[in-house]
Known about the structure:
The structure holds 4 protein chains of 4 kinds. Chain A is of the alpha/beta class. In chain A, the strands form 15 sheets. Chain A has a 5-stranded parallel β-sheet with strand order 3-2-1-11-20, with helices on one face. Chain A has a 5-stranded parallel β-sheet with strand order 12-19-13-14-15. In chain A, helix 7 (394-414) packs across helix 20. Chain B has a 4-stranded parallel β-sheet with strand order 2-1-3-4, sandwiched between helices. Chain B is α/β, with parallel strands linked by helices. Chain B starts with 11 loop residues before the first strand and ends in an 11-residue tail after the last helix. Helix content of chain B is 38%, strand content 16%. In chain B, helix 1 (21-30) links the parallel strand 1 (12-17) and strand 2. By secondary structure, chain D is mainly alpha-helical. Chain D has 2 domains: 11-100, Orthogonal Bundle (Fumarate Reductase Iron-sulfur Protein, Chain B, domain 2); 108-232, no CATH class. Chain D has 13 helices and 3 strands. Chain D has helices spanning 11-15, 33-37, 48-56, 60-65, 68-71, 77-81, 88-97, 108-118, 126-142, 166-170, 176-185, 202-206, 209-226; strands at residues 160-162, 190-191, 230-232. Chain D is elongated and about 70 Å long. Chains in contact: A-B, A-C, A-D, B-C. The interface between A and B is large, with 61 and 56 residues.
Amino acid sequence: MNQPANILVIGAGISGIRSALDLAELGYKVCLLDRAPAMGGILTRLDRQFPNNHCGICRMLPMFDRDNSEEFCLRKGLSHENIEVLLSTEVIAVEGNPGNMTVTAVKQATGVDADRCIGCQECEKVCPVEVPDTFNAELGKRKAIYLAVPYQMPNQRVIDLQACTRCGECVKVCPTAAIDLERTPETLTFENIGGVVLASGTGLFNPQDMDIYGMGHFPNVVTSSAFERILSSSGPYQGSLIRPSDQHPPKKIAWIQCVGSRNPMIGADYCSSACCMISIKQALFAKERLGSDTQTTIFYMDMRTFGRDYQRYRDQAEKENNVAFVRCRIHSIEPNEEEGNLKISYVDHSGKPVNAVFDMAVLATGKDPLRKLPDFAAHPGIIATDAVSEWMDIGSSVVSASGVSERLARMLSSAGIKPEKQATAPLSDKVAGSPHLQVVLCSCNGSLDKVIEENQLAAELKKIPGRIDIMQAKSVCDAEGLDQVKEILLNGPANRVLFAACNAQVFRPKLKQLAAVTGIPKEFMDVVNLRGLTENAASHDLLGEIMNQLEMRANRLFRKKITPADVRPIQKTALVIGSGPAGLSAALALAAQNIKVVLVEKKETIGGNFANIHDAQIREMIGQLMDEAKDHPLITMHTDTEVINNAGVAGQFVARLRHANGAETTVLHGAAVIATGGGKADLPADTLADNKIISLYDLEAELNQPGIDAANINTVVFMQCIGSREEPRNYCSRICCLKSLKTAMKLKELNPNCDIYVFYRDMMTYGESEKFYTQARAKGIIFIPFEKQEKPAIKIESGRVLVEGYDPVLNEPVCIEADRVALASGLIPNPVDLVASTFHVETTQDGFIQEADSKWRPVDTGREGIFVCGLARGPVRADEAVQEGKAAGLRALRILARDTIPASQHSAYVRHAICSLCERCIAVCPFDARYVDPDLGRIMVDPVACQGCGVCAAECPNGATLIGDFEEYGVMDEIEAALG
Amino acid sequence: MVKSMSDFQPKIIALVCNWCTYTAADLAGTSRLSYPANIRMIRMMCTGMIDPKYILKAFLDGADGVFIGGCHPGDCHYINGNLKFKKRMAGMEAIIKQFGFDENRLRLRWIGASEGPEFQHNMTDFIQTIQDMGPSPAQGIMVL
Amino acid sequence: MSVYAMVKDTSVTEAVKAALTKLISQDLVDAVLVAAKSPYSALPMPTLFANAEAMDGIDPLAPAAPFNAARQAATVSRQATGKRLALVLRPCEIRALIELVKLNQCTLENVVLIGIECLGRMENEVFLRHAAAQGDVTAEFLKNTSLQDDITRTCKMCEQFEPAHADIVMSTLGMAENSVLFASGSETGEALLKELGLSPAEKPAERETVTKQLLEKRAAFKKEVFAETSEKINSIEKFEEMIGTCLNCYNCRQACPVCYCKECVFLTDVFSARPETLLRRAQKRGSVKLPTDTSMFHLTRLSHIAHACVGCGQCSSVCPSNIPVADIFTTVAAQVQARYDYVPGRDVQEPIPYLMFEEKQKSGEPK
Amino acid sequence: METLTKRKPSLIKQQAPLRDSTHLMDMCMACGTCSAGCPLTGVDGFDPRKIIRMVLMGRDEELIESKLPWLCTMCGKCEHACPMGINIISTIRTIRGMVDRDKVPGMIHKGIELCLETGNNIGLPEEDFVFIIEDVGEELAAMPGFADFKVPIDKKGANILHTLHNKLVNTQNEDLVHWWKIFYAAKEDWTVPKQNWEGVNWGLFSGDDEAMKLSVGRIVDNMDQLGITNLMYPE
């Protein structure tokens, strides 16, 4: 990074990475800190995620202006021009005001100089100290000098100074003198910081704090995060699902939900939200790995499958994969006679006690109740992500982090802090000339001298056709060595560089530096791992190997060209469709950054469901958004209007609006946010056979009438999941449980003697809303669970409304005569057919707009430049819709805040002269990045949408489309060289 | 120029996806999971980028085997490039088979980013397979 | 249900001519593309007629085709012009044309496809020899089965001599002398047959027998060729031997109706061998045979078009080195097409296999 | 369905003590932790969760009349893990206390009455008690290694006051010596009161607060009078 940071992000987990990337993509300089010696937080320990059992972590990376970042699996780390990552660093104090803060941090000594360590692992080989492997939940061992995360690149070691005995063996073998055991912590001061994002996470509950689970005593009781490690190939057992005690595959595994959650006795009156889904996922993986006859049992109280696609995931696990779900919170885990096995007692659905024996138990742990926010958390200018106070799944964390980025960006722009326009280093004139390769042989402080000399590498290299200069350096890790290379590149004729040195990943930062100084693009530089090749003793023809590798890379470099870059000017106007809380938040987020917003609302008035909202807090929140939007000079409202057409590509769209009176308007815009919302689902007419039977929404409205007299409402029954969570509407509507609780409590307030019964399937009071459930019970409301197939029945007998159900706790039928029966009918999206076809975005089977990736790109659609938020995407609470709106606004801002977007070096381009216009490339493009320009009669590539995957180039039979940096001729030459 | 089986060192081209398999290869490296060195790894951004020409070029230039490693279905950074390649692969198998290259000399496997051991295992296994089959019929023939 | 009509004239060619000229004279189409003799050569060439009077020399049933006319058909139907065209094509030409439609090289909008039942074509010189000897080769060919043995090797293994996908099909197999059976293959075709005022007829019963016999003969020969060829190219050494005389003239790709690239990749920088590359190769291997990349060329072309090969045999016909290119291509194509369950020209709506892939798949090994 | 479910105010709920004011009995979410842990769940229909649910539904009479509350051994396993901190045992005791005394099962209430009258649950007169324990003491002294053993009775200033389970005194006196052997070996300074030696507080079991308090008070009095600060109360 060439300028000092103006934003600090504390915590380099999912939220921190998302937020840092958001702000970096806007052009801010960000410093991303983590107290751990590796970045990634818990992400690095998860291989696959629900509800699709895929990974996809890389989808968080920037999708345009990709040259600013390294395109590698995010597990390896994050590398972006505008982000500086500082590990083993903890903030201790914050001073000053937003816009001008001073932050003090301590960087712990890791014992290894990251600038010198080349990741050769010599130190690790000789270290005599073994300690439990913290990365693998202590299920294996590691050395005191170690790699914090195995995929981490550069793979530089750190020393666990608490375990280190200072024997000095590592110091002796380090070829680059990178180890210094006497280093002390360093205090870092960051000045002129505009704002700070606090994304330090919630920590994980440690079940050893409770005596009932036997964690720490019984080896086969593991936490869910340990189970993730056991499943992982990079885990303690190389991906074999075996239990710790005897390394045998378990046949019966129990998952225990709510360990450390939903337990006011330990200060945990909250739900950790993600654990239910994690357990289902783990059970599915256990079945996949060990065979379908593996018994998997999940002990739960409520399966909180509240995400849009989660209920179907659970149903599938239960019906198709035979995962057993037992609704009972277990008391404790006890050892069984058989070695290592575990006895778990529970009561079944009918209340009968069962003593079961399992081979292994997984404790579904969530948020750590003991984790406290740092003292400075409340300091003005610090904005915390929700994931600091709540444990949440990846998708929610990502939305929340982007919401925070939006708030921070707004804070900075109101403080007058704008991202610095980045001057891209000009390319050297030499680059356009014919290829001339500089080979740099690094002897790694003499340790590779022997290889280089014995094999006469310099002489051999001369045989490679093309212009080649060769130099030998003592060490390019040293400033001196690197300066030597710079000198030669600046003054010599070479316009391409090939290093024969060590690990390419270690080298990459140096290549960037070199590129900045010399004007030779980093794509024109490459590294061959000479050290790695030399160490591989299996080779019987070392010279052949080395020369193969060098010639492969040389050939590629010789044939590299600067990709002709299309620069797309950006239409700095946003189109927002829908004016509910999501749409308004998106519009305001953009307007706050000086982007013109055209807000289109199908209805006569803005505010979405505002008229139907009775919760005072939410009313105030939305009311405020409405007022702000109405008054905002940059927001133009079009009510009674629909978008009937949209064409173009990200940055340059043309939309056609039609007013109800038929008048049409054209809007030029650069990005659109779809926030078409949704509303209450209607109840089937036959359910409303008596006027005492009403929808939950109607009861809420009734109780919120001014001067309501509830004295005659003495018995009320709430029934949850009417029409929801079963086909065809097999998703949780997310708002009903909380709404029923709030309505019931309101009723208790109005008439304390009122008897209230809630029939529910699973109370979906995720996160902090669990407290409402606790409060409602404390107020004497009775909750009766039922299963989908045993719904309570409503009967009308001579004017009396009776609800007949079954109480599994008492194991007896219940029959309640009710003054009101409130049916929770749930939410449905507004029709999206028109908007989906207009914007060419996909929809889900339930009629929501399909996002690009529910975890990593939750508010993007499959089309770059089109975003989605709120109820249009899936059921959400109003406050969540606001977050999504902000996040969507911020995603759109990445495009709209720029004047132009250049294509990445590594994008597709078309050689029109030989293109046959067969359009196969258009058919296979996964990002809709290609189209025919009808005027030119040419295939065009949208540089914003193109990700450089190269499917088009492989599909094109004659090389009319090529991928920058991966041109076919270069690859062909590389293959030829590889085979010598 | 037939070599005896014992000193047959197969030449193998591995075309691997930048995101998953390449990460797994690196992980195998940092985890000291060694595999025979005679694999020439070429990083592709995606298996979907692999042109049939690359496979033909490799075989005709004397490769004893071509290994292709991509992301597990659903994990592709580019949504489904891996499945697009898989489709192309079927035709390629038919072609190379007809011209006397055992179909098993061309292998496609999904290897996820964290699957360092799988990478090692796949490499070792593929080399073994190729060693068992012996040198490519194109070895030593001037085919280009 | 097909509608049939029978036309009997002084010759089959006259019968066909009568119907085709009417298409123009009755303003049913604006132009007809059909093979016609020119004053300069007996070899019929695809010719675009806009005037019925000019159609005297048409000879669509001649056992000759100097090239697969799908390319010419695609040229005239590259974009919709607003004019209605009738394209008179052989089955392999129609199949190739359908592939070209999928590849966006032409459109069937406002096109009437008229298919000819094709008993095969002769190599040009064979045809010209017969023409020199006896004038109307077409009439003689349809009558004389021994003449029918003079068709190309590839035609002898063709089982798809009955056109599919045509609006109108004109057949002669099993018909009385000088008679042509017109059949509709679509509503458009049915309407046109009505407009032409042709007398309705039944399909002659013996047609089926004759067709079946021919099919059996062709199938048997195809099997033979495939087996023989497969054996001949089952090692890269044998293949090298087979194409050892390849000159890299690219005639085969020029003649191939589904090799649609504006410029072949072998003519681009992807393959143009640079001197340093050639020298390096020579350095490493001792020698380099030139022209280079011959086997690479054929294998790459296979990888590009094996799924789409319609087996017209033009590649063999044009090879100056007499390499049985079509034997190789049809043999490999059959295997590739089987893997994809794809038949080129089967259905214009059927996407080419590479554009169809499983969107979702459970994790696991690819095979 | 015949009977309508109707919630009634529960006296049990009002009287049952809370663990603390933040953990109300109403907070029970019927999660099953107590039932899963209780060694008696399923025995004669016993289920701690069910009892709490019945209390919340105001089914006092039913509970008071049933034998469910009497099945509990008061081991406390349920409460230990209850995430809502519900005082399950105290609740069950409260119910027992609301049962008419003549309906208290077995000899418990009779024992309480005897205890109030005589100082022990079996109404054993003081001289009989002294005779029994001295007799057992002598038997122990006759065993090798226990020479000079003597049961210290009402010894002032001893370190430990030792109460006894009536069963040991009544029918199983051979078990008395186990403790005494330990005391002897440890050279412990201990004593047994000749009055109010009862070590089983049936008032605690039956929910009879008055009787419970009285029994406890008597032991405290003994300690005061003998000047003893440590109590050993083996049940």
